[in-house]
Description:
The complex is a heterodimer. Chain A is of the alpha+beta class. Chain A has eleven helices and 16 strands. Among the domains of chain A are: 6-78, Ubiquitin-like (UB roll), CATH 3.10.20; 221-288, N-terminal domain of TfIIb; 293-363, no CATH class. In chain B, strands 18-22-19-21-20-25 form a six-stranded mixed β-barrel. A five-stranded parallel beta sheet of chain B has the order 3-2-1-5-6, sandwiched between helices. By secondary structure, chain B is α/β, with parallel strands linked by helices. Chain B folds into three domains: 5-175, Dimethylsulfoxide Reductase, domain 2 (3-Layer(aba) Sandwich); 182-374, 3-Layer(aba) Sandwich (Rossmann fold); 418-561, Barwin-like endoglucanases (Beta Barrel). The chains are: A alpha+beta, B alpha/beta. At the A-B interface, β10, β11, α9, β13 and α10 of A face α2, α11, α13, β9 and β10 of B. β15 (329-332) of chain A pairs parallel with β9 (239-243) of chain B.
Amino acid sequence: MIARSTVTLQGRQVPFTPGETILDVAKREGVEIPTLCHDPRLDPAGACRTCLVEVSGQRRLMPACATKCGEGDEITAESERVERHRKTLLGLYLTDHPFSRDEAERGPPNELLDMAERYAAPTDWGTLDNKRAARHGDRNPYIDFDPELCISCARCTRYCDEVEGVTAITLAGRGSETTITTVDNLSLMDTTCEMCGGCIDTCPTGAMAEKLPLTHGLKKERELTKVRTTCNFCGVGCQLDLNVDPEGHDGRGRVVKVTSPEPGTTTNDGNLCVKGRFAYEFIHHEDRLTTPLIRGDDGELHQASWEEALRVAAEGLMGVRDRHGADALAFVSSSRCTMEENYLVQKISRAALGTNNVHQCAAT
Amino acid sequence: MTNSIGEIRDADFLFVIGSNTSEAHPIIAMEMKRAVKRGATMVVADPRAIWMSTIAEKHLQLKLGSDVWLLNAMAHVIIEEGLVDQTFIDTHTEGYEAVRDAVAKYTPEEAEKVCGVSAEDIRWTARKYATTEKAGIYYTLGITEHSHGTDNVYALANLVLMTGHLGKPSSGMNPLRGQNNVQGANDAGATPIFLPGYQRVDDPEVHAKYEKSWGVKLDDKPGLNLNEMMKTMGKTIKGVFVMGEDIVLSEPNVSKLEEALNNIEFMVVQEPFLNETTRFADVVFPAAVFAEKEGTFANSERRVQRVRKGVEPPAGARADWEILCDLAKACGADWRFENTAQVYDEMVRDAPKFAGMSHARIDAESHEGKTGLQWPCPTPDHPGTTYLHEGGVLRGKGLFQPVDYRPPMELADEHYELLLSTGRTLYHYNAATQTRRETGLHAKQDRAFVEIHPRDAKMRGIDHGDTVRVSTRRGAIEAHAMVSRQVRKGCLWMPLHFAEARANLLTNDAGDPVTGTAEYKVCAAKVERVGVAKDASTAYPGSDYHVSGPRPGDTDLSTNASA
């Protein structure tokens, strides 16, 4: 029998596969280890120090996200020593981070504040000036950076580098002046940025946030209802969450923003592109058609009732069939519409009007 | 796709041909980037320099429409060097000998002359593809939108079959689907040949099954495909129903189509916005968009996922499925669907490939950390199918199809001395009725542009940002010149998204003989300057991925050549 690799986690013997980190194993075993700079899509950075745990044979606490399990390691993720470390660390983070939610929550929930609450971190250690420089006047339409909320975890820059691969943003400066910027402080519009918004998605504190809901003063993410659906652009089939304010638009509901699901739960692994994440304004655009139209004798389209429009449409299609035969009709269905709707179009074409002349842009 | 998107990151060799993946399928591109970062080798074959070619091991910048030469030459090398998987060929395929004989004359040295890709690069790519276990092919419309699109696909399939790169994880043949539900639209039977689930309309058993199921007489001869519909418009076609497609923007050679639409008797259009096509409609129904309705989309990897209603449509607009039910009723049909789950159930009832799926199952289950179900999924306890052709080719034996090179229908000549190709960009989507209404996307890319090589620009006195007129035998449009070495000398490229500069006034409606797909990717064109750039520094709305500096021989060109 092959000996299985095991570690002892919180006094329990648990298996691991060589190469797995302590955090991987703890996640699987349901042992909570807090993280801020960790994102499963990124290489471990070990930068935020919130995931430090005790490991047998190690004098210092070790970062769970970057430490690989070793045979027989005894790992303690909850102890007086670990707890003391977490409190101290989070207390230090809060010295240059606003802790009123009004100020510190720009849309998505602020993970640092949630964590500070959970571990009862001290909030009375005074306030240091935040010395991170902003990039004022960036005219890009989507992504806003607030240095006050940044904790230099570098998730955004690592995402930009490792996942999207465009390396448009970078860490700059040293120590407490470390900030997120671009080459020459250019607007993101003038960099290699492709506006995928992955920096917003991965940011734990909302330092990177979406501009539109902010500028329109819309509700924050906690107050919105998330509706999971499938993106309506290309054929990848990304899952996304419509963040809906049910009271918006006179109770018809308003899509305030789009966010991506947790990494590892869908085909898109928590990623979206510029269209999936940001192209939702068309939903509530003033140009949307709101009434059926019928072309009048004057050659113009005129508003009509649904009954009238349905009658004219049916009579028109059946009239062509009666005069010229069913194969004088052509049905162009849509690869943008649902499967159910495509099923219904081909059924109308075949069963109601009698022609196999039905297709969509699959051939183009 | 025979593989799944999640398998891409584990591939060791990626052959990306005719796919501008980072712009047309950005999330699949992220998976490819991850594979390359892990150490996989990527080869991009594309007439244009694209983002993906900047991280590729090799960029085979082949001439427009020379794909069959390139692919046959790769097959030639694989056979010549004994790199075929003879066991796979013997067990799972038929017709190998015909291909072996057909590609004998396609030597890499001859291919170099036709494709403009060095024989050494062709050999290297062929060897690498054949000898890497996890080797996948990824292609899009750069392969199919040709008058020889079917030949291109067969030539790719021959490579797959002779190397046995099929039926295994990360190893297969993967067309990346262009629209959110182009897979699903075909699955659902919106095609002239197939009822739902790829059951032929002229198969007597299928025909009988559906006549019984629907309780009506059905026609058992295949109908017209889209290309044929457009060509017979106004002649034999007298009435048209269009849902969710701007045919007057997206079909090739649209001026001919517009003329034809003036000669039809009746047209119904179902759309969320007025567009180019509604100009010809007799009745327009206001439709809901995806965020306002329930249903399913099937993605590129055959994964059926749910579309869920987040908000109500604007007062007066209705979901397409509701409109369709009412229209059917007005046409005398007696359908009773209360919701889309019932429509889905009816669809899968008669389609064995999908019979195990339902809205309830898709809502409740996830497999391997992914939502949705991948067909084939024949029974309610079937987990779905991650990759196709496992343990043997689905049709029994994979059929080799020898193909010979046919040039594009239109080549450059003394009147139209350049070749024009068209495509998509990252920031817009197809007819762009949605994306051009987005402030941010508009800010990023607000106007039509045409890419032109510095030498071609210089010869015509065109500077970066100038307004130019691009014309073909079918029409002319104006756009901003983007002087760039992304395109080959002698070639132009432009996006299709812009209604004020419709690239499809220019494109050729010559179709592939099998699929009817039009040759959007190659036609003869000319270009001339009509206006001067106001500010060349900001006149550039595209993305320039060509990073290298001037090349030998470019030095005699003036500064306007630098993009």
